[in-house]
Design goal:
477 residues; alpha+beta; 5-stranded mixed sheet; 3-stranded antiparallel sheet; 20 helices; globular; binds protoporphyrin IX containing FE; binds 2-acetamido-2-deoxy-beta-D-glucopyranose
Length: 477
């Protein structure tokens, strides 16, 4: 979703700006091959059409056929080097802060906060990234997140009636925002979660909008929501400073205050950045996983069997243990396959810090560089039957190396290098527990056609309308 936001904002604003003159001069150097497209607009419309469709790499694939896996085109009023090349994508991610930096419009930086990990660069980014990774690393999840996630899941997901018609997209949205508020702020009371979730929603809607800071505009509402969120965080900080501890000590905020020494004004931005990066990505991956499972009953059956088998081995206790989580091997395959086929981060956005030489090419300073992840994830030469949902492919020993989402050039749903998603393990835990709750509580039938689109944000265009029936324990074999 981050990527989509940039696209919108860049698209609306950047292409009106004049072209970087230095770039124009260096263009005759060996920029990767490509075409210029229409003046100003360049290939932006083709890009848009592809991304709004259910197969985002369409445009990239066409260009790859003509020009090769690394090509240039004119996007957002600027030259961009776009890549469907696994090694080059990896090279770009590995050289974050050295040859490339991630690139954001100012309006976006103002909203998510200029002290947050997403927008800062260099030294400061590495420090904040380290803190974020530490807060959400695997060992911490066991102690601080496992049970809370299950509680939130039960509360937000398990009370629908027999025969109820729902839009699963809205439900996932609610689940994800509740999880984020609970985990970042450590809030557990339902009314407080709802209040914060509401503020957070206003905030994110504004991030998706045209940045006009006038009353009535979503951007303005978002700025106001941002202020209220910061006030709430400030109050928590004050309480902590006065009393030396907090009643709710599970949240990232509390641990941040206890274990790290960030200046107070950086704390709020830090939290807001995590919220921003984690909310929609998680919600949409949950949604897409159920969407794919609905089309693949064999996988759904196997997932359900796996989850049912876990329930009996946890001795009738309600809560799953860490061991249970570690035993969900097929569920993990489903998550990996959902991220491959419906990865939310379809591309990353970078800018060259200096003239960069790669093979025979020179990428001039200031040029956009776009590692197009989904073009690799959906490449028939990399994955057999690349467009099919096939979670079993990840059980094949041949794919073991490919599957390593921390390092694999062929599979990078969480990015890589210095900006590798620090929430990856947390997201996977949330998605697994969501799938578990959902498939063991309900059966469902889809009541309306649907398809994926990745513009303006990743979604199912009709919200995934389904009719639920509750599963009853006794009619399961
Ligand atoms: C399925 C869910 C998720 C996916 C697919 C995902 C994907 C990504 C990707 C691809 C990046 C790299 C962006 C870039 O290089 O420009 C990223 C960065 C980030 N993610 Fe996630 N993410 C997910 C969930 C989360 C969660 C749950 C959190 C935290 C609560 C989170 C926090 C972050 C942060 C803070 C960054 C920025 C890191 C930096 O710039 O140093 N993500 N994510
Ligand atoms: C979370 O994401 C949903 C879209 O899935 C969006 O509508 C909502 O406003 C977001 N809220 C926050 C706080 O990020
Ligand atoms: C929150 O606290 C920080 C640091 O003490 C301060 O700079 C900021 O103005 C406060 N913001 C609000 C909205 O209260």
């Amino acid at each position: 979703m981050i990527m989509t936001l940039f696209f919108i904002v860049f698209f609306l604003i950047k292409f009106l700006q004049k072209e970087n003159t230095k770039l124009a001069k260096t263009r005759h150097k060996k920029l990767p091959p490509g075409r210029r497209g229409w003046p100003l607009i360049g290939d932006s419309f083709n890009w848009y059409n592809a991304v709004a469709s259910s197969h985002p790499p369409t445009f990239v694939e066409q260009q790859v056929k003509r020009f090769g896996k690394i090509f240039s085109c004119s996007l957002f009023g600027k030259w961009a080097v776009v890549s469907a090349d696994p090694s080059f994508n990896r090279f770009v991610m590995q050289n974050e802060g050295k040859l490339f930096k991630s690139s954001y419009p100012k309006s976006f930086r103002d909203l998510v906060g200029k002290n947050g990990v997403i927008t800062v660069q260099g030294e400061q980014q590495r420090k904040l990234h380290g803190i974020a990774s530490n807060m959400m690393r695997l060992e911490k999840l066991k102690f601080h997140f496992l049970e809370d996630i299950q509680r939130v899941m039960t509360r937000t997901l398990c009370s629908f009636e027999d025969d109820q018609l729902i839009l699963l997209q809205d439900v996932c949205r609610k689940v994800a925002i509740n999880l984020m508020v609970n985990q970042l702020l450590g809030i557990t009371s339902e009314s407080e979660i709802n209040e914060m979730a509401h503020l957070f929603s206003d905030f994110v809607d504004g991030c998706l909008s045209v940045p006009i800071n006038l009353p009535g505009c979503p951007y303005h509402t978002a700025m106001k929501a941002r202020e209220k969120i910061i006030k709430k965080i400030n109050r928590t900080i004050k309480m902590y400073r006065e009393e030396g501890s907090l009643e709710v000590s599970n949240g990232v905020l509390a641990r941040l205050l206890e274990e790290e020494s960030l200046p107070d004004e950086a704390v709020a931005d830090f939290i807001i950045n995590l919220l921003f990066a984690g909310n929609e990505t998680t919600a949409k991956t949950m949604l897409f996983a159920v969407y794919f499972l609905t089309q693949c009953p064999t996988a759904l059956k196997q997932l359900l069997d796996e989850q049912e088998s876990l329930k009996s081995c946890s001795n009738g206790e309600e809560m799953l243990t860490w061991q249970d989580y570690k035993a969900m091997s097929f569920t993990q395959c489903v998550i990996d396959e959902s991220l491959r086929l419906g990865g939310i981060a379809i591309w990353l956005m970078r800018e060259a810090i200096e003239d960069v030489k790669y093979q025979d090419y020179v990428i001039p300073k200031g040029c956009f560089v776009v590692p197009f992840l989904s073009a690799v994830h959906l490449d028939e030469n990399v994955y057999n039957g690349a467009l099919n949902f096939n979670p079993w492919r990840w059980m094949d020993p041949q794919n073991e190396e490919k599957r390593n989402w921390r390092n694999s050039p062929f599979y990078a749903p969480f990015g890589g290098g210095a900006r590798f998603c620090p929430g990856a393990e947390l997201a996977r835990l949330q998605i697994a527990l969501f799938l578990r709750s959902f498939v063991t509580t309900y059966r469902w039938t889809q009541t309306k056609e649907d398809r994926m689109s990745f513009f303006p944000s990743a979604r199912l265009v009709n919200g995934f309308q389904i009719r639920l029936t509750r599963r009853h324990m006794q009619d399961e074999g």
